[in-house]
Amino acid sequence: MQILDGKKVAAFHRERVERKLGDLLEHHIQPELAILRVGDDKPSALYAGSLQRVAQSVGITAEIYHKDVSARENEIISMIEHLNEKKSVYGILLMMPMPEQYNVYRIVNCISPAKDVDGLTDVNIAHVFTGQPGFVPCTPRAVMAVLDYYHIPLVGKEVVIIGRSNVVGKPLAQLCLNRNATVTHCHTRTRDLQAETCRADILIAAAGKAGLIRADMVKPGAVVIDVGINRIDGKITGDVAYDEVAPIAGAITPVPGGIGSVTTMMMLENVICGQTPTD
Ligand code: NAP
User: Fold this and answer.
1) Which domains does the chain have, with CATH numbers?
2) Left, alpha or beta for 274 (phi > 0: left; psi -120 to 50: alpha)?
3) Is the CB of residue 172 below 6 angstroms from any atom belonging to ligand 1?
């Protein structure tokens, strides 16, 4: 069994980011990532802070723009429009979840698609589906980056994805389809989850349910990618019962140290290197 080490993959991409950033700095361009946070969601505050630290450690300016829950929708949109116009801003990240009172769809789609580094706007989502270059959401990109780093081919493989969110499951399924995998999408209404997962050559869990994937749900030798991040008693754990699945799997990502480690670097790569192919 091979451990798919996200830290190695992140280090590989960090080098690419640093090289490209060096080119920009030589031309006196100091790119900025604008992180927009509305309200007081604690996990997103923590993630914003950690993203800012990693960005700064690479040499990218990362500013956090915070609005409290009393901010009017138009105020947030004005701020986005200002950031759209600001030349030094290469990327705008709107932290989720936003407080319920806002029309998130409307706000997200005010981000210029050329600065939408988390691939949330309709324009970038469409590019994933049509196979045009665009900004691909960072977590699905991280999964592809891990598969590519370890030379795991997708052509003709049975890929089973658990989860169908707009930011993870759906774009990931499309990326796998673009690489000629046969993709099955599972969710809470899937009748027999185990029957589906047992067929997978590559099983990707993105459900947000700790320990959902047990040993008897995995085909021997399968590649198991755990996207889940769950906080149990102060510890981070994935969707896969790692200790029992690892001996059966051909390869597996740990949590922590797997996809999460790569996701942040994908964000910075999107900021510095721009839009990427979606196939
Ligand atoms: P989400 O919006 O809550 O979606 C979860 C999906 O999983 C839904 O489609 C849901 O089905 C499905 N699901 C939940 N429980 C299930 C079950 N028992 N059986 C089958 N399907 C089930 O979550 P998300 O934003 O996609 O994130 C998924 C996980 O990835 C979370 O743990 C999140 O923290 C993690 N995440 C990790 C990273 C990273 O960098 N590693 C980045 C983003 C998110 P329905 O559609 O039927 O409800």
Assistant:
1) 28-135 (3.40.50.10860), 138-261 (3.40.50.720)
2) left
3) no
